Amino acid sequence: MRASSKFAALALAFVALAAPLAGQSPISLGLVIDNSGAMRDQRKAMLDAVQTVLDLSNPPDEFFMFGFSDQVYLDQAFTSDTKKIGQALDKTESHSFARIGKALSQALDYAKQHHKNTKTALLLIARGDDDPDRQNTNDVTRKAREYGIPIYCVGLLQGEDSSLRKDARQLLDALAKDSGGTAYYPKGSGEIDQVIHLFIRQLRNAD
């Protein structure tokens, strides 16, 4: 294939991803945000990811946000006002270590009790490690399957050494695959937008 043809194909693919999402199924989405100290260097990438999610929202959509480090907090209850999510995010700070399993378990319980849209999911944005008392992954994914709430993961692993990346991907892959979601690993800030477009489209079009 000629270079010009390849470029045209890529351009068409991006346009398809960026196409308006109006008319597609509304979603109830829980944002589960890693605020551990290990995420300090990835904070901008995390903020970009959340902002892209909000930019792609439709009026019937609703969002809530849990933040976690060594503690888990409901930073924003379900709302269709995306500005409230942004305001809650602005107040978060990075510190201590991460308790991913505990955060996901509490977010699943909250989503199950309070969601209003049929398509409900969690989006975990995390580094994927640094959890000293990691809750059994099987317990979390079992609850997700029982509730019918898949877990999607965005692993921000840029700059990590190979052993940490391997462990983190193993955890995030298991959480996503075993709950019916997908794990994404943007290679840099330039891929954040494309990854989130893909996630939103997959979620809205999921059976």
Can you walk through the features of this model?
Helix 2 (43-55) runs antiparallel to helix 3, helix 4 (100-114) packs parallel to helix 5 and helix 5 (137-147) packs parallel to helix 6. The protein contains seven helices and six strands. Mean pLDDT is 84; it is low at 1-22. It has a six-stranded mixed sheet with strand order 3-2-1-4-5-6, sandwiched between helices. The chain is α/β, with parallel strands linked by helices and 207 residues long. It has a single domain (29-205), classed as Rossmann fold, CATH 3.40.50. It starts with a helix and ends with a helix. It is globular.
SSE arrangement:
Elements: H1 3-18, E1 27-34, H2 43-55, E2 62-68, E3 72-79, H3 82-90, H4 100-114, E4 119-126, H5 137-147, E5 151-155, H6 162-179, E6 183-184, H7 192-205
Parallel strand pairs: 1-2, 1-4, 4-5, 5-6
Antiparallel strand pairs: 2-3
Helix pairs in contact: 2-3, 2-7, 4-5, 5-6
Keywords:
6 strands; Rossmann fold; single chain; 46% helix; 207 residues; disordered N terminus; six-stranded mixed sheet; globular; 18% strand
The structural class is: alpha/beta
Q: What average pLDDT do the residues reach?
A: 84
Number of helices: 7
Rg for CA atoms = 17 Å
Please report the total strand number as a whole number: 6
Task: Write a compact overview of the structure shown.
The protein is α/β, with parallel strands linked by helices.
